[in-house]
């Protein structure tokens, strides 16, 4: 009864917001409003950053949910089990290779990984794919090359570290969580949903089923994208970056600073290399690598989505493991290679 009332209340609130938006769009005189109300520059900046993040991310979210829907409709559990090695340690290697063959932007990776886990992919294998796919990408490699033409070790380091560290993250997650179900949806519900989908497939064309599933998942994911983009835009506007830049001179603290920057800025992996290159005169190459490897694995946008669909303890553990592995990997790389 309470859940029904809550659902109806959400629908009424959503409908009211749509009506208000349409009314303001049609009848509000924006020129008069701008004269009467002075909006601080900081909040205009928040608006600009928020819109840029959302507009940049929406195409990739659409791609992600469409791929997720294709997996749901066309890929069976038996197919996944057939191609994934039974040995959990060996299984991380094809997952990393899959990330290179089938790259997905970090904006779109969460729905794909969620669907793969629902289809039977082991938890740690799916998160190897989540960690490396947004980086092991021809477009990302090209943008990194053009941004760092004078220092190709950044390109080699980014691709190499992403490949190796993603497997290390997966192995650590396996040690702590094995192949336990960390999705917020119970296994019984998953079985029920899969049975329903199979039944519907008898009556609904597969293409229609894919489109229906993609639209449902897009609106489900969209709200978390908006929340993450808003938080990221607030951080980018109001965070005092001079405090962080003052820590950038130390070779041990600067990678952590740049990892924090990458998390807050929530840049798309196809474009973050050009932002990283702008810090070249302030931060050492190791810190720039930390920015380029950590950001696509974890940022505010996909963290909000992870919290929405995975258990709280697991998400915090993944954040801790990914942060520690990337930091240690970058420190070792800059000590012996750079």
TrEMBL record:
Kindly list the GO CC terms recorded for this protein: plasma membrane
As for membrane topology, the entry says:
Multi-pass membrane protein
- This chain belongs to which protein, by name? Permease
Q: Where in the cell is it found?
A: Cell membrane
What family does the database annotate? Answer: Belongs to the UPF0718 family.
Task: Please give the superkingdom of this protein's source.
Answer: Bacteria
| UniProt-listed InterPro entries | DUF318, UPF0718
Pfam families linked: ArsP_1
Record keywords, A-Z:
Cell membrane, Membrane, Transmembrane, Transmembrane helix
């Amino acid at each position: 009864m309470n859940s029904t009332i809550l659902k109806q209340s959400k629908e009424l609130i959503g409908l009211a917001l749509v009506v208000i938006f349409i009314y303001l769009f049609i009848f509000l005189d924006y020129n008069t409003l701008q004269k009467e109300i002075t909006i601080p520059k900081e909040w205009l900046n928040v608006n600009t950053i928020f819109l840029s993040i959302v507009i940049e991310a929406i195409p990739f979210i659409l791609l992600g949910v469409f791929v997720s829907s294709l997996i749901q409709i066309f890929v069976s559990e038996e197919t996944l089990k057939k191609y994934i090695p039974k040995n959990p340690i060996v299984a991380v290697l094809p997952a990393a290779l899959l990330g290179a063959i089938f790259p997905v932007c970090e904006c779109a990776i969460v729905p794909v990984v969620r669907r793969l886990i629902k289809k039977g992919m082991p938890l740690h294998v799916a998160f190897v794919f989540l960690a490396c796919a947004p980086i092991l990408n021809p477009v990302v490699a090209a943008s990194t090359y053009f941004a760092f033409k004078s220092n190709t070790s950044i390109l080699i380091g980014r691709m190499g570290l992403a490949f190796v560290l993603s497997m290390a993250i997966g192995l650590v997650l396996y040690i702590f969580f094995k192949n336990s179900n960390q999705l917020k949806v119970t296994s019984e519900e998953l079985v029920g949903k899969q049975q329903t989908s199979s039944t519907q497939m008898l009556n609904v064309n597969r293409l229609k089923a894919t489109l229906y599933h993609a639209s449902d998942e897009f609106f489900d994911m969209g709200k978390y994208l908006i929340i993450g983009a808003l938080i990221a835009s607030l951080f980018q506007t109001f965070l005092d970056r001079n405090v962080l830049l003052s820590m950038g001179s130390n070779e041990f603290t600067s990678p952590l600073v740049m990892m924090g920057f990458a998390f807050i800025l929530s840049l798309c992996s196809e474009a973050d290399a050009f932002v990283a290159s702008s810090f070249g005169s302030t931060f050492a190459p190791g810190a720039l690598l930390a920015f380029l490897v950590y950001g696509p694995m974890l940022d505010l946008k996909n963290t909000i989505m992870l919290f929405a669909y995975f258990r709280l303890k697991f998400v915090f553990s993944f954040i801790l493991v990914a942060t520690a592995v990337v930091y240690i990997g970058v420190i070792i790389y800059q000590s012996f290679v750079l």
